[in-house]
Structure formats: structure tokens, C-alpha cells
Amino acid sequence: MSMNEQCRSAEGISRRGFLQGVAALGAMPLFGASGGRLPPIRIAHCCDPQLGFGSDGKGKEAYKNDLIRAEKEIEKINELQPDLCFFGGDMVNRWNELSHDWPRLLKQLRVPWIVAAGNHDIPDDKSKTQCDLFTSVFGYVYTAQTMKGWRLIAANGQFERALGSHPDYHAWRDRELDEAKKAGLPVIWLTHQPPFDRKPDEADSYQNYPLKTRHAFLDRCLDSGVRFFLAGHTHRMANRTYWQTPVLNSETTSRNFDKRPHGFRMLDIPAEGPYKWEFVSV
Ligand SMILES: [Fe+2]
Ligand SMILES: [Fe+2]
Q1: How much distance in Å is there from the Cα of 63 to the middle of ligand 1?
Q2: CA–centroid distance, residue 57 to ligand 1 (Å)
Q3: The domain at 3-281 falls in which architecture?
Q4: What is the pLDDT of residues 10-65, one digit of tens each?
């Protein structure tokens, strides 16, 4: 099958899924993806603090400079007082350094926070040691909570990508989506790896979910009420959509491959009007 044929067939699947999703929406409050009737919420969208990965300095020097920026980011978030601070994973560059500074940094944050594990936090998805360390610092490997009329699902993109390897995770996320749909709660899907990097039909890569199941996953999300995907991992700012649903990657405080300045984004979903997603420099 040629690439074009693959794209066409994938698009066909997603279109069917989208139409099924629209039909299913009849049973729940109809929220528009571009704002208007979504419950208001403000979320700081912070990507890849990745202590030790920054390009200014090497080794301990890079770690120290990334740490300084992570502390500044926390100061700004404390000033701005969003409803939630979301960290999109890769909290450190080397997983065994997770407990060096993050317990202290989390105590400095004066707003609720939620973290999606990155591939640098739990690189070997079969290692219990890595999951245990992540849990000892953040309290879970994946989680969900309801806030201000939204279901916030902090998924595990690493497990999502590893098809068949994490049946417990996949059962959990299916249950979460089913329950959100039943409750009529709009969902923000929080993840490290985005479902796709540039286009929904792109080939499999380090940056996305396997094409084999990518559209089925995305369609299921839309059918279940996902209204935003917030991600990290790519180290490039990106604002694209899947059937009008925003898939957003903010700037990082470690290294930005697109030469964007260090910082984060404030996602502001107001009671009326379109959402905003504005850059805050660090
Ligand atoms: Fe990263
Ligand atoms: Fe990553």
C-alpha cells in the first residue's frame, strides 16, 4: 500500500469516528472546541523542564541552569495563580535524579499541579524501579481528577505508545473515557508524547503514537468528550488540530529545538468566547 493510500484509508477511519462522535454528542451537553460554552478554567501548560538537558553548559552546569529556570517558572505561576499547573513530563533528563529537586520544587508551587510522566522520567516502561521512584515523587504513574467541570486525564504517553505491553493502563484509560462520556464531562487529555507531531496521518516516529491505532485512539477521545490535548516531548511549540480539537505543545524551559525563547503557555478557557493560549517567558 502506498503512503497516499495509507493516508486516505486512515482519514476514512477518522472521518467515520468523527461522525460517530458528533452523533454521540447528542446525549451530552454540546461544548464548542473554540470556546463559548466550555467551563472556564486557567491552566499553566509547562513542558519538559528536563533538568540537565538544556544547551547552556554541560552536565552539572546544564542541570543548574535548567533548575534556575524551573524555579523562575514556578515563581511566575505563583504570581499568575492559574487553577492548575500542568507539567507535560520529562521533569529531568536522567530518571534517577527525579528526587533530587522535584520534591522541594513541588512544595514551592502554590497552585494545584498535575504531571504526566515523560520518557526521560520512566524511560524503560517495564522497570518497576523507575515507576516506583516517579510515584514516590509525584504520587502516581498516571491519574485523573475532576476540576471546575472538567475531567483532567494525565495519561502516560509512553505506555500509550507501547501497544499490548500495558493492559492495565489501557483498561484504565478506556474506563476513564467511558466514565467521562457517561458523566457528560468535557475532558482535557494531558500527556507527554502528543498523539501526532505535525499531521494526524504522519508515519510512525519517536514523536507520536503508532499509526496502527492512532486514529482509533483519537476518535475514541473525541467521541468521549476530549476538547483539548496538552502535550510536551517535541521541544517545539505547536498548535494543530484534530477535527477542530486543539493539540498543543508549549515552549520548554530546557531546550527548544525551534529556537523559541524559554517559557510556558497559559491556557485560558473563558466562560464566553474563544480560548487563549498565551506565551509567558521565563
Ligand atoms: Fe523532553
Ligand atoms: Fe520526551
Answers
A1: 14
A2: 17
A3: 4-Layer Sandwich (3.60)
A4: 444 454 454 444 444 433 333 444 444 899 999 999 999 999 999 888 889 999 99
